Structure formats: structure tokens, C-alpha cells
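Researcher: Checking consistency across runs. Here is Class I SAM-dependent methyltransferase again:
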Amino acid sequence: MELGKAARARIAGTDDDAYREAFDMFLSGTDEKATTHAYLRRVVDRLPARRTLLDIGAAQGTTTRYLAPYFERVVCVEPSEPMRRALARACPRAEVVAEPVGEARVDARADLALLSHVLYYIPRAQWAVTTARVMEWVAPGGVLLVLLQNPDNACMRMVRHFTGHHFDVRELVGELAALPPGLVGRTELDVVPARYHGRSLEETLMVADFLLSVPEAPSPTREAVEAYVRRHFDNEDGTYTFRHDQHVLRIERPAP
């Protein structure tokens, strides 16, 4: 499949079908969901209660559907209309809020909340405010998981090379101490491994464009991205591979 300039431009918008198509292609070539779901199952097993799941940035609902059977109620925040259509098919019983997290009204107290790969789309100065807002939706004794890619992995080195943007959830830890009392208790940083394997150059370029669709970032030329992919990800057999391990900041809300 040839990825022309028009298609590449459309990937930059999260609220269209081209973005979802590129996202689906990324998921088809990565083991991220398998490794993340195994990690999440261990977290769920340790929860003191499993009444409500809150999935912020639920996307097409793959993880929501995996976790839903463990909880009595499922609430999702997903502003992308194409993603919401897919989410409704994946997890019909989920209650879906269409506004972005900064504008959403959520009537829930979650035992487990996910803020999964959302902070890329939120200005760095608002990370702590956003986290505090989400923690207000977490029940005492509940857990919020904030997921971002490890900034030192191969994928994020590519993002930094082309956009200059740097995303590191570890920077948030020091800011949590300034949040209102009672919101943040113990915090831990976990690492979840992930690897993308592209079956062809065209697939890998489409995925690279998806990963480079950072808000307000410059759009690199196809030639530049192709040269980078060939240099850093080529397996010399027509396939391409890169690591994109995730950081998970686990934040517990103190029990009363």
C-alpha cells in the first residue's frame, strides 16, 4: 500500500478513519497488547475491590474489552469518533464520555483507572493538573496507571529525532507531591516490554507516520522517514523491527 502525502497528512488528525487505520496497523505488528494485558492482569489480581474500571483514552477498546469481565462497571473517555465506533463494538456495555480528559465529566470512583498514552496530546505544563483531575475519579484504595513509552527506546528516539519532543513520565513523579492531600499515596514505576515487527517497508512507514503524529510537531518528509527506518530498523530480509517498551507509573490513592 502506497502511503501518499495526503494520507500522511490525514494521520495527523486523531478524529478520522485514517488515524484509526494506522493505529490498527501498528497494533497488528506489535506485541504491546499481549505484554500489557499480562501486566494489567497482575495489577487487577492485587486490587482490594473491582467495582469500576475507568479507561481514559480507550481507543478502539481492545484493553477495555480485556479488563471489562473483572469489573461491575466500565467507564471510558474517548474523544475520537472513529475510535468510539470501534469501542462500542468491542465493549458494548461501556459507558462512553466523548469529551477530552480536560473537559470530561466523569461520574465514577474507579478501583482501576488507566491513562494510557494520553499525555502525548496534553501540554507538558498540564500533566500534573490532568493527573490530579483523574485521581479525583479514583476511589480511595484504588490505582491509576499512567502509561507512556520509555523515552530511551528506539521508537521514541525516532520521535525525538524528527520532532524534538521528549516525553518522560518519570518527570511527573516529583510534581505529584504538590497535589492536594489525600489524592496520591505510594507510587511505583514499572516497565512493560514491547516490540513492533513490520512485514514490509510500506507498513513500517505508515506506522512510523502514526507514531510521529505528535501535536504541533513538524511533519518530516517521507524521504527522511524512509531513510531513518532503513538505517535503524531494517532486518535485511524485507522486514523491520523496533523496540517500544512502556513505562507505567502506578499511583495509589490512599485508603481512608
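Researcher: Does this match what you'd expect to see?
Model: One thing to look at in this run: The longest strand covers residues 138-149.
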